[in-house]
Design goal:
Chain A: It comes from Puniceibacterium antarcticum. The complex is a heterodimer of chains A (about 375) and B (about 400). Chain A is built from 15 helices and 14 strands. Chain A has about 375 residues and is of the alpha/beta class. Classes of the chains: A alpha/beta (about 375), B mainly alpha (about 400).
Chain lengths: ~375, ~400
């Protein structure tokens, strides 16, 4: 089964929400692969994911097939990235070992099948939280680890300063993502016409856009920033001010296993809360000796025993934070302003800094 | 004294199922069938159980919901308010369009290249060999991307046509080659164009009538009427006359640069051109080999006999060799047509919205109904392929060697 999914994942064009480097290939074989997975994955989708993970000794984590900054293998074959950080934190919390993760690359199409068939325990793959996915596809989004939104990039020479001036434009768009729906809605709402140029890969989008085969390129703003940064002359292109959609990206688990959902949710919030309370990978040992801040003590397991309520060790959150640092550290290391992706915190700052990252209280 | 008795009339015993060669093959075929059936039953029930365990079900209700996405080429009315089903139809028609264009083009290319591969001219022969080997030995996906990349990179963007001294100009002031596709003048059907259409159809029938008359005359009396120019005249002249008599009912709408793009006229998307020609030249190379094999399968004596009757090489090829070669060419040609249709599902590589792009791509992604979409896709390709092979088999029966 695992083999089938990986095989399907590798062969199949991946489309993801934010931004992608994918390869096009034979779709029929792929989709057959996905069906085989669905047909063979017997009973793995039952409850008690926690027991399965513990018995297996490894966490199966569905990630992007390769999106630098979010999830991509580095030169040594080690998976690195913002979404990867979530997987490692959960593995550390549950198994005490951040390396006990099997990363399973999934594409836009295989990701949901892989999750519902039990192929993966968590899906951390720039997946936009939508009503249909949450309700109709029977998944639970445990939180939002990146607040994104769809924007437009145009060449400066076009003389366009607002997305409202794009009537009649040819728009390059990555196909199979929520961005496609937002685009259709936005132009319909503003009574404008456009011609979509569906694009399969990030590289192809760049080529088409730079050749002038489309007037504007639209995807999540984080993706636009990453693309623009990679241009020869980034200054010749502007990202228009309009953000036309909400793209809350977050980790997903199966609906129905609430215990497992709680573990993933609170591991994620432990990372967020850690940033808020100043727990970093540098000072975590020092702080876990005991502090005068009760909430920090509760997170680090030196006061009360929140871990037992989750069915985990008392040091679960400490292990999760130690795995890759708190939320802010993960952000800065993988997609922050000092990386090639160069994203500012924006909406993803802590609520205390005017952002939307707000962990519920640990008590 | 010996007593002769009849050999015992074998009553059926169970062991005969295995030891009697009369029954043995049935036994094993039956066992194999049961194994296959139970394998599929297992897969099917497993799928259903798992879907149920995950709280999912097989439902095609999503086809009636609005699709919410746009498609850049649709042969029928379509907007983002249309249903997923209609989006699937748009995709299906786009698949059929590109498959149809590519089948026709590949056949023409293949027949020409196949005949020329046997040319006595060394250069022509080697050029065609190079074409066949180069094109059929590189995956078609690569060809699709190569052609599309060339179109995108070499042709100017519409903005290059703008300004006092544009970098690019339209061919004859009417046709624009851009990296977004080809813009052609579109005909506007004014009043009276229906009459024009009727006259044109009548002319086509006239051409066939003339040709069958000429053939009959040739067979009956041996008189050879000219075929070429009278056919052409019958085809063109009446329509041309009527066009002017009716006061030019059909006018052309020229594409014009307005806003971001050319407006008006007909746009042929670059992705359609790339996919169409990649499939055509790729499969054309295979067809060329079929044609060559077919021609070589016709005994040399046939061509020599025709030559000794005084037939020119062209006529020998058309009247003697090709008709006999067809029975060898048609069966593999069917699989080439099927390949074109199925390979057209690579369309997404260049963003052409075929049924794999709409139903199997965006719809599948937006609704998450992977199994339903894939089953529909499989059914679609199966039906199309069986239809093509059915039609071609009818044709094959018509041209195959008649044994009486």
């Amino acid at each position: 089964m695992v083999f089938a999914a990986q095989w399907a994942g590798e062969k199949k064009p991946l489309r993801k929400e934010a931004d992608k480097q994918e390869e096009v290939s034979m779709r029929k074989t792929v989709t057959l692969g996905a069906m085989t997975v669905a047909a063979f994955a017997a009973g793995a989708a039952g409850a008690a994911t926690l027991d399965d993970v513990k018995a297996r000794g490894k966490l199966n984590c569905g990630v992007n097939t390769g999106l630098v900054g979010f999830a991509a293998p580095d030169a040594n074959g080690e998976w690195q990235g913002f979404d990867v950080g979530i997987c490692r934190a959960v593995a550390a919390a549950v198994l005490g070992d951040p390396t006990a993760v099997e990363f399973i690359p999934t594409t836009g199409k295989t990701r949901f099948t892989a999750l519902s068939s039990g192929e993966i325990d968590i899906l951390a793959r720039n997946t936009t939280w939508t009503f249909t996915r949450d309700v109709d596809l029977k998944f639970d989004f445990v939180g939002v680890n990146y607040y994104d939104g769809q924007g437009f990039m145009v060449p400066k020479a076009l003389g366009v300063s607002s997305a409202k001036e794009l009537d009649g434009a040819t728009v390059c768009i990555q196909t199979g993502t929520t961005t496609e729906l937002n685009l259709a809605d936005y132009f319909r709402k503003n009574n404008m016409t456009y011609q979509p140029v569906p694009i399969e890969t990030e590289a192809e989008a760049k080529q088409q856009y730079l050749a002038g085969a489309c007037d504007t390129y639209t995807t999540d703003a984080s993706g636009l920033a990453a693309s623009r940064a990679s241009f020869e002359n980034p200054g010749d292109h502007v990202v228009l001010p309009e953000i036309i959609s909400k793209e809350p990206l977050g980790p997903v688990v199966r609906h129905g296993d609430n215990d497992w959902g709680d573990i993933v949710r609170w591991t994620f919030y432990a990372l967020v809360a850690a940033e808020e309370y100043g727990i970093t990978s540098a000072n975590i040992e020092e702080l876990s000796a005991g502090t005068d801040m009760p909430e920090v003590n509760r997170i680090l397991g030196t006061e009360d025993n929140l871990g037992a309520m989750l069915g985990l060790e008392p040091g679960w959150a400490k292990a999760a934070i130690a795995a890759g640092g708190n939320y802010g550290e993960l952000f800065e290391k993988n997609i922050g302003e000092n990386t090639p992706i160069a994203l500012s915190r924006g909406l993803n700052a802590q609520w205390t800094d005017g952002g939307l990252m707000y962990a519920p209280p640990f008590r | 004294m010996t007593v002769l008795s009849d050999p015992p009339v074998g009553s059926f015993r169970l062991s005969m199922l295995i030891y009697d060669s009369k029954y043995r093959s049935y036994t094993f075929q039956f066992i194999a069938l049961m194994i296959v059936i139970s394998l599929f039953a297992y897969l099917g029930s497993n799928l259903l159980t798992n879907l149920q365990a995950a709280g999912l079900n097989i439902s095609y209700g999503f086809l009636g919901e609005s699709s919410n996405y746009d498609i850049n080429q649709s042969l029928i009315d379509y907007s983002s308010r249309s249903t997923h089903l209609r989006a699937a139809f748009v995709g299906a028609l786009n698949t059929l369009l590109v498959a149809f264009l590519a089948c026709i083009t590949a056949t023409i290319i293949g027949v020409i290249a196949g005949v020329l591969r046997l040319s006595p001219n060394w250069l022509v022969r080697k050029l065609m060999a190079a074409y066949v080997e180069a094109f059929r030995n590189v995956p078609v996906l690569i060809w699709i991307i190569i052609i599309f990349t060339i179109l995108t990179a070499v042709l100017p963007a519409p903005s290059a046509f703008r300004g006092e001294n544009p970098d690019a100009t339209m061919l004859f002031g009417a046709i624009a080659f851009t990296n977004r596709g080809l813009y052609l003048p579109a005909p506007i059907w004014g009043p009276g164009s229906l009459i024009l259409g009727v006259i044109f159809v009548a002319s086509i029938i006239g051409v066939f009538a003339y040709r069958s008359y000429a053939t009959k005359l040739l067979f009956d009396t041996g008189r050879l009427l000219p075929m070429g120019w009278p056919s052409f005249a019958i085809l063109i002249l009446p329509t041309l006359l009527a066009y002017f008599i009716l006061g030019r009912p059909v006018t052309l709408e020229y594409p014009e640069l307005a806003g971001f793009n050319f407006q008006g006229g007909i746009q042929i998307l670059g992705s359609l051109i790339a996919l169409w020609w990649a499939l055509a030249i790729y499969t054309g190379a295979f067809i060329a080999e079929n044609v060559r094999a077919g021609i070589q399968s016709v005994s040399k004596g046939q061509a020599e006999a025709a030559a000794s009757l005084g037939m020119r090489p062209n006529r020998t090829m058309n009247l003697v060799v090709l008709p006999q070669a067809l029975r060898v060419i048609i069966p593999p040609l069917i699989s080439n047509y099927l390949n074109i249709t199925k390979n057209s599902s690579l369309a997404i590589a260049v963003g052409y919205m075929d049924i794999t792009g709409t139903l199997g791509g965006i719809t599948l992604n937006q609704t998450g109904r992977a199994i339903e979409c894939i089953l529909l896709l499989m059914a679609f390709y199966l039906v199309i392929s069986l239809t093509i092979s059915g039609l071609m088999n009818v044709y094959n029966n018509a041209v195959k060697l008649k044994e009486r």
